[in-house]
Amino acid sequence: MKKPITSLKLFIRTAYLTIFAGALIYSANAATFTVTNTSNAGAGSLRQAIISANATLAVTDSIHFNIPGAGPHTITLLSALPQITSPVHISGYVAQTGASPGTIFGRSIRIQINAGNFTDGNNGIFHYQAGASGSSLSGIAIYNTGSLVAAVALDQSISDIHIWGNYFGLLANGTLPAAGGEMKGDIIVLEHDDVTTTTISNISIGTNGDGVNDANEGNVIGNSTTNLNGGEGINLWGGLSTV
Ligand SMILES: [Ca+2]
Question: What is the distance in A from the centroid of ligand 1 to the CA of 12?
């Protein structure tokens, strides 16, 4: 004969169920992953933050930077970053000490990415697959991309992307990197190798789309080398986009 369930046991079971349900809800919530060092990989790195954000699948996460010190802080990549497969707002402005979009002439970027001049870059340093629709990238300076490696690559069927308030080809303080640090691939490119139909849509370059401070949210794009393997500025191959 089964023993009757006492009220205490019932309470404990209910509590377990509640905790379990809470864990399920938590896992589906958006998370903020914070970059706390300039390492190429490992805990606190930009690479790890992208890996973590990708793991939440369709949830829109945030990646912020909070690296100690005044900066600018240089993240030197030793290999390609993971492709971005889930929506994520990457911002060098939100949490980084001293960083501010301000006015376009009074901007303060504190995170600069030395793209390492390698050429195995998955075709892009920040490479957004279709699953990353709804992402944004802001407050970053990128320089020294290798041949055939775009700073930002957008895959077929991507939509609702905002690229704003970045420096492409410049250091965080707006000056040129040392000779050899130029952008040797395209700056922002729709991955034309993938295009069979033009389903790319709502790509906004130079605004975050909130209708506030838009005049100051442009990217500075320059310092790219002209060669057969790229060096073009913005290269969108179809669809309805705002530049
Ligand atoms: Ca705005």
Answer: 50
